[in-house]
Design goal:
Elements (H helix, E strand, L loop, with lengths): L14 E9 L3 E2 L4 E9 L7 E8 L9 E8 L5 E9 L14 E11 L2 E14 L2 H5 L10 E5 L5 E4 L20 H4 L21
């Protein structure tokens, strides 16, 4: 579960992500990502909220990021709203071979009027379920035999202050005040066994 706090001042957030549930996990690599997202809106929003799922293909460069899906939610009346956000698996041909297995990141990002106001990030561990393949992985990854495991209990929530009345021209986003365990970008989400990919190189 993800619990957001509320910003103060003129840029006070009008929408909170109060909960995210990771569904269909663990699952085969080629199966869809599924997130049950609960939003709380403190007042009516005349425009749509854009939500997208982004898969980080490599820690080395954003050029390997894949937007798996993007949906518009709204107009959003005040109150609590829940929806299931599903996106197809990433295109394996766009993932560097050396980054196919091990730990990467998947992001759920929400924006309003073109400005991102919150992102929820999870580590994803991709590995073979067959012990023999794990011991001797083939040079060319066999994605049909790979399982993805999202570390659902250890999300990283990063919030950004925006001008909700005129988000397109708002000042540069800032991290909102949140517990250190969920908003400090220089801290890892969770301690994991050593893997080939360096988690220190990843940034949310």
């Amino acid at each position: 579960a993800v619990v957001s706090t509320q910003s103060t001042g003129s840029t006070m957030s009008k929408v909170q992500i109060s909960n995210v549930v990771v569904l269909n996990n663990p699952a085969p690599f080629q199966s869809p990502f599924q997130f049950e997202v609960t939003l709380e809106c403190i007042e009516d929003l005349p425009s749509d909220i854009e939500c997208k799922i982004v898969y980080v293909g490599s820690a080395e460069s954003e050029e390997y990021d894949q937007v798996l899906d993007s949906v518009l939610v709204g107009p959003v009346p005040a109150g609590r709203h829940m929806f299931v956000f599903q996106a197809e698996a990433p295109d394996p041909s766009k993932i560097p071979v050396q980054d196919a297995l091990g730990v990467t990141i998947v992001l759920v990002i929400c924006s309003y009027l073109g400005k991102e106001f919150v992102r929820v990030g999870y580590y994803v561990n991709n590995d073979y379920t067959d012990p023999e393949l794990r011991e001797n992985p083939p040079e060319i990854p066999q994605f049909d035999k790979v399982q993805k495991n999202i570390l659902a209990t250890n999300p990283r929530v990063t919030r950004f202050k925006i001008d909700w009345e005129n988000a397109e021209t708002s000042p540069p986003p800032q991290n909102s005040e949140m517990p250190a365990s969920s908003s400090q970008q220089d801290e890892p989400l969770v301690q994991m066994p050593p893997v080939e990919m360096s988690m220190d190189a990843m940034a949310f």
